[in-house]
Amino acid sequence: MNSRNDKNEELAPHGKATITFEQGGVDEVSVVPWTQMIPRRLAKKVGLTKKWATLFVVLAGLFTTSATITILVVSLETIATDLNSSVSVLNWSITGPMLAFGVVGPAYGKIGDLYGHKKVYVYGLLFAGIFAGLTAFAWSASSMVVFRLLSATAGSATGPAAMAYVNRLFEPNERVRPLGLWSFVTAGAPVLGVVIGGPVISAIGWRMIFVVQAPLLLGAALLAWNLLPQTTRSKNVKFDVKGSVTLGLGATLFLLTINRGHSWGWTSPAILVFAIASLTSLWLFIRFERAAEAPLMPLHWLRTPNIILPIAIQSLINFAYMGGFIVVPQMLERGLGYSASHVGWLIIARPLTFSITAPLASFFTMRAGERKSGVIGACAVIASMLILSSLASGSSDLLVVLGLGLSGIGFGIAAPALTALVANAVDDETIGVAGAMQQLLSQMGAVLGSTVMISVHEMTVGSTTVVRSYGIALLFGAGTATVAALLATRLTPTDRSAEAMAAN
Description:
With 504 residues, the protein is mostly helical. It contains 21 helices and five strands. The strands form two sheets. A three-stranded antiparallel beta sheet has the order 1-3-4, with no helix packed on it. A two-stranded parallel sheet has the order 2-5.
């Protein structure tokens, strides 16, 4: 009997995958296994190419893990009563996953580059589903926070893996559009989670959210295992354990310092310890990266404008975007006396405009370029913050919707362009790491925005009205968006981005 060597499909950057079976004494024969036949037939039925069908598979898993990060925001009081705890404690069930999603991402990006993004993606979904199921049976606030944190830690693998697939499935001149979808999912899913959280929890209860999420994630893991192609792996390279640990620890402690500084006191022993430990960890990270054989984050990226500038701009815009998303509902309800249902209908304007703009922004970016997209997007967010900061008693719903909608439009225009600029500026082998770093710093921007802007409100509310104190917080967000706009004027297209513009 002739031996047969089964070669697994492998998706190389910009390459075309083929499957062959080698048979002794016989020429190689092309074979299409069922795991490829099914997605091809499904894609043909719905009019999608295989690469677009694959993209929707990976983005679906990313959406499922991202949306539930914030889905409990509007129902923390209800959950606190159910678990005999307090809102301040349960707030860690939101903040913890947000931190995990950003902090752990760089490690997953590197692991995916080394061992294949398919495995990272599938196992991320698998363990996210397991811990989501356990969350449904949480018996206390602490158990809920732990299960939520573990689920988010596993689920954060989907972001870098999805970006890596974008890079391998699409040529540089095709990436803006799929990266627009990637940006929509990473930034829009948590926002949509806030919007749908209240009605869903009121209808079925908070535990049922995780009862439903768990089998969805497990099913998505099984589907992805059978349908996704393998990705090429870096060989003879060791994983940067020291860099991963020090970056994760430093970023976590830094965000904890900012997050708890106001409530615990900026000069309290705990905050001072967190701050010193954070700076020490980040200093060690830089030292370790300089000596690492395969650094978690190549330090030359910090001296590469088309990498560090887009990431910084996106983080600053996300600062205002997410900070405003937390501040405005409180401003409308506590300051202007809007009902919860009224607020719920109004804030839909932001995710709605973002969801429409982000996928379409690729057409604008292909013609105008990343620099104009970044500047215009940041300016739209500035206008949004200024409009929302001017709200007062008697302001029309139309003005509120305009302010919220401009935030969604601005971020929807800027995010795909900035993401594409980073993707086109790095080597194909490090795209997973680049995506993870972008996710980390963007998430840090979101956490800092919501924390700092709420702190600004709390520090000023004693000397002015409630509405005005929220307005000052929104002006702070306008300031960060202004810095983003100024930085965006310094963006320049990479060679590959220039080729993309010429092709379109």
